[in-house]
Amino acid sequence: MTYTAKAKSDAAETVLQFIDPVVEWLADGYEPPFNLFEYDGGDRWHHETHTGRDYSLLEAAQLLDELRDHEETDSGLWDGERNAKVVIRTMAAYTYGNTVLSHFETLIERIAGRAAELTEDLGDTPSAETLRTLVQTECNSFATS
């Protein structure tokens, strides 16, 4: 599995982790936040699940090459670190986290768009059960795309 595919899968898993508030916002007629850090516990989840990973130097190099569009550039995360290996591995961990956040935002936008289409088609806000199914379906589709 590529790092891109893994990040998409992790983004879908993250949406499912926060499915209750996502469905609540949609059921109330609002778009859910696109920023994971606006969800209660989102910051902790992200750091424990995505940026808290450890990579070998080779894995870090491969990840940074593949996910270069989301490369972490905040040198404050490794400022003062003298070991280049630690710097590269830290950069890789946060680059992966950035990629997951980007895919999370894309997926939430997609879900909000589909919910809006469904609401328009029905002429009314769909039930929470229907919205939950929509979120699950979109997450499954996104994770395998």
Please, could you describe this protein's structure?
The chain is mainly α and about 140 residues long. The chain contains six helices and no strands. Helix 1 (about 5-15) packs across helix 5, helix 3 (about 40-50) crosses helix 5 (about 85-120) and helix 5 (about 85-120) crosses helix 6 (about 130-145).
Q: Estimate the strand proportion.
A: under 5%
* Annotation, overall tally of beta strands: 0
Low-confidence spans: pLDDT under 50, at least 5 residues?
none
Mean pLDDT across residues: 94
How many DSSP H or I helices?
6
Which structural class best describes the helix and strand composition?
mainly alpha
What order do the SSEs take from the amino end to the carboxyl end, as H and E? Answer: HHHHHH
Radius of gyration: 17 Å
The termini sit apart by 12 Å
Give the helix proportion (percent range): 55-70%
Instruction: Identify the overall geometry.
Output: elongated
Q: Biggest sheet, in brief?
A: none
